[in-house]
Amino acid sequence: QVQLVESGGGSVQTGGSLTLSCAASERVFDLYTTGWYRQAPGKEREFVAALGRSGTSTYYADSVKGRFTISRDNANTTIYLQMNSLIPEEAAIYYCSTEQYWGQGTQVTVSA
Description:
Number of strands: 11
Helix content: under 10%
Shape: globular
Order of helices and strands: EEEEEEEEEEE
Number of helices: 0
Largest sheet: 7 strands, mixed
């Protein structure tokens, strides 16, 4: 059973930056594509970004292209999401997921 633990969430002002981390209990990120998703109150969970198992293929939602960057560490046990120029509409709980596993999420708050 793989466990994923997100961290790095917090509160920033509009235009601010945060880097989220997703740590896996075992080496899995080079076995499966891994994604970041977010869910705001009253809204459905939506795709944000993904990293292919090769570590070189990246995929982004149109709304975050050019501002967010997904990456991972050399040990393939931690995935990152660098988020720049955040806006209030992006306040949500951010989750990482790989294969059928999901983390518990980390809260991101963006104030105007």
